[in-house]
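The methods section describes the discrete structure representation at length, but only in general terms. An entry of this sort, consisting of the sequence and the corresponding backbone structure tokens, reads as follows:
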Amino acid sequence: MRILFLTKEWLFHERMGIMYLSSSLKQRGYLVRLAIVDKIGINNTMQLVNEFKPDVIGYTAMTGEYPALLKVNRMLKRSFKFISVFGGPHATFFPNIIYDDSIDAICVGEGDIAFPDFCKRVNESDAFWESPNFRVKYKGNVCTNELLPLIDNLDTLPFPDRGLMYESDKALLNEGRKMFISARGCPYHCSYCFNEKYNEIYKNKGKIIRYRSPQNIINEITSFLQYYPLDCVWINDDNFLVKPKEWFQDFTALYKKKIKLPFSINVRANNVNERIISLLAEAGLDSAWMGVECGNQEIANSILKRNLTNQQIAEAAIILRTHRIKFITENIFGLPVPNPYAIDLETLEFNLRLKPTLAIASLMYPFPGTPVRAYAMTNGYLQEDEDFLQTSKNSTMFNFSSKVKRRIENLQKLFPLIVRFPFLRHFTDLLSLLPLRLIYLLLFYFWYGYTEKFKIYAFRSLRNELGAYIRFWWSFLRKT
């Protein structure tokens, strides 16, 4: 049994889903390959398929990547025989893609058990159209199957297959920061996030929040260190702090003893408290990403459904600074409101008070299935047939006037620099009106990449990081 995974691209971090799937597939004795289409080109992709002769080609796609991968799949289907499977966020939240002529099946939700089971059924000529979590075309019909329960014990999963990814992208191997996952699930209901819809899909299908034992995640990092370079551990849970207090006590004790490297996490302000952050800082917590999203508290809670106060965010920032933890604030500009530029200025002012190590903003992208998309359409800010770009740092999708669009798009790109150099705040209104979008875009990626690579994350090889920074800058620019 041969399975080929195809992705469009990735930007300097591992696709954990593919690596987990690969480990499970290899446990069954299947041959697995991975290729990045943008990296090797369509001709080499065609050659790879011709030589490897996969039984199944699996595509993992976010919404912005889906159109390009669909085009690749259609081309391959005209020349080769295989079963095409789409998975990932877009297939989960927009399952009607199964009706495209070139797609044979889609996997909805967690695929750790479902996808290997599907491949096993294909390999044994069993009823693969009845595979749980799948929608499959069979004899002219689309068979829709029930979801398996969410995986309760994450310790039962094999460690992700890092080698698969590093073989397809040698540059990724040299990155000093590597990603790990210690938990799955988020209990919050932010209107722009996939978790709201995801939790609805999995209602009554198991616990939303599941976390690995401290020993299990430490074992993975320890195993990783035996084979690969590592300068900084990036634990990329949706919210690292949504765990019992006892978990942190065990984790920090093990981490200090066995890992002894700086690490980075994602936090939500209401979960940041002095006791836990003190423990983590002593163990090596070096940086944290924290969602702010909008400085206008009323809009943050009524439209974005953040359920946070600005006071909670400010207190969390103080705790992080007290423990000398570098923190990055994540914000959203261009909201579907009557005065988006004025609201973005409030977000700017709030970040100036927070004084993060780095403040970044994306433009609001109302993805399919999210409540904020329904809100935007109901209130006339969005048309049904709007296309999604690959990046949320380029232009707004909403029906704003040309002047408002220019202002919010320019401000979003200038935002990190203004927060870092507050004297620029006096010139914000003028700068946001100038027709310098491309220059601002170059500045945005320059500062974003420079700060992340050289000011936030630990590294040992300046040469490696400088090369990674150049690739970071160029890849984002090309993508945009």
In short: The mean pLDDT is 92. Residues 132 and 148 are 6 Å apart (CA to CA). DSSP finds 19 helices and 15 strands in the chain.
